[in-house]
Amino acid sequence: MALPANLPPWFKKAFPTGLKNWFGRLLICVIGRILRIIVRFWKSFRIPGTRLVVVTGFDLVQEVFSRWDAFPVPHDSKTDALRWEPPFLLSRRDLNDEYVAMRGNTREIFAEGLMEDLSAISLQAFQARLPSAGVDGADFDLMWDYTYPAFLQIIRNFYGLNLPEDEDTETGFVCALLVISGFFFGKAHRAEAPQHVLQAYRYARNIIEVRVEHWKTNTGAQGAMARAVAKNALGVDDLTSYFLGMTLGFVPTSGNAHGRIFDTLFKRTDAMEWARRYVGGADDDRALDAELLSVLHESLRMNYILPGLWRTAPQSARLGRGLDVEREIRAGDTLLASTMAGMYDPARHDEPRQFRPDRSYWGYLNFGHQMHYCVGWDMANTIMLESFRPLIRRNFIRKPHTRSKWRGEFPWVIKAHLPGN
Ligand code: HEM
After folding, report:
1. Can you give the residue range of the structural domain that contains 285?
2. Strand ranges across the sheet with 397-398
């Protein structure tokens, strides 16, 4: 799977190239930088003349996430616009029995006690995509030659979803997931989904639905699909929703995180030095994984996947009660809880601009906090370790004289070089 030559028209509409892309990227970068400066002075602020409150302080961001009843997610507007039925976890506003059951099922089907299997499957998927040993100075694209194709292989082998193997469909599937993810995280509320987003949604959903229907009526299901089918209470619509949610939660988000971490390691020699300390003598030497993971999380903290996460305020409320940063939230306000700024809050982190993988685990918001905390956190960690260990062991560097290319908020092309491979 190489960099796609023929992108689907709905993808080009969602992520245009040229000046539009350039200005879009500039805006995202500028917003991120401004938020990380503002958090030094203000822990929350209202954009004047709007109903938008931006929350930057670490403690306040955590408070917004933990008061899920006062500040629910707005994503049901998006699942409604897409007619995604039954809607998956992230759009559920209440911590009710239905949400708890769905979350429990998701953990049972996809994650619980399965990380050793996932490690083995992931390592094989990533190793198979490295340029072959002995190819002098092999160059390759970290996103389209390595990360995305390995992700699809993990979906085949661990999820048990037999995705088509032809390049156009593989590309189309990844592109569709990027479009839908951009739709979910781009704006807080959506009354309607634009045509190109609906097309992308139908494309991805159809691929999953066809396979779920097949497995539901035939024996031989494997991996997560077999565990899901064994739960007889789950019909085709439920299963499609689970697999679509866990694919959408996986590919764009982990892909984005991979791109950010690649960039941090390439830009900061201290980060790469730390990483090199924590890989052992073989691709499957996992003795130093806890330390390596802390380097990857610190790299992500320094270059987070998005400025923040959306929440709403159906009723008026006070944020930061009892603290010296109390703020009035009005009924109908939208909140941007900036995980990116929160992880740069000097009240939480000494010298937030320093690369320090020995920071406390509790200083990270990479996977959110409390209700909606990433249901795939251990899968994401497992996959990242298996992906980065072989690259770091082979001393991967950025291909000289190249820069990362982006499409909107997503890493697009990041060329790497394996010196003396
Ligand atoms: C490094 C990669 C990842 C990062 C940084 C990440 C980050 C996050 C964050 C911040 C949230 C909370 C969203 C919110 O509170 O509004 C979340 C939720 C979620 N993530 Fe992840 N994620 C990653 C990988 C994954 C993977 C691999 C999966 C699935 C296999 C996944 C599935 C989900 C789902 C389904 C939710 C919604 C959970 C709920 O609402 O209860 N994520 N993720």
Report:
1. 9-82+98-417
2. 139-141, 415-417, 397-398
Residue nearest to atom 15 of ligand 1 (CA): 372
**132: DSSP letter:** P
Cα(98) to centroid(ligand 1), Å:
19
Ligand 1 centroid, distance to 304 Cα (angstroms): 13
Number of CB atoms found within 10 A of residue 137's CB: 12
Nearest CA to ligand 1 atom 19: 374
Residue 142: inside a domain = yes
Tell whether 91 is covered by a domain.
no
pTM across the whole model:
0.96
Measured in Å, residue 248 CA sits from the centre of ligand 1 at 9
Residue list, ligand 1 pocket, CB within 6 Å: 73, 89-90, 103, 245-246, 249-250, 253-254, 257, 305, 309, 366-368, 372, 374-376, 379-380
Q: Does a structural domain hold residue 253?
A: yes
Contact between 323 and 59 under an 8 Å Cβ cutoff? The reply is: yes
- Quick check: is 14 in a domain? yes
CATH number at residue 336: 1.10.630.10
The mean pLDDT values, 10 residues at a time, for the chain of 421 residues are: 82 91 89 94 94 96 96 96 95 95 96 93 96 79 96 96 91 97 94 97 96 84 90 88 97 98 97 96 95 98 96 96 87 97 96 96 96 97 98 94 94 91 66
Q: Which atom of ligand 1 is nearest to the CA of 245?
A: 35
Out of 374, 379, 383, 409, mutate this one to test ligand 1's pocket (max ligand atoms within 8 Å of CB): namely 374
Give the chain's domain count.
1
| Nearest CA among 17, 19, 61 for reference residue 39 | 61
Residues 189, 195, 198: CA angle, nearest 5 degrees: 75
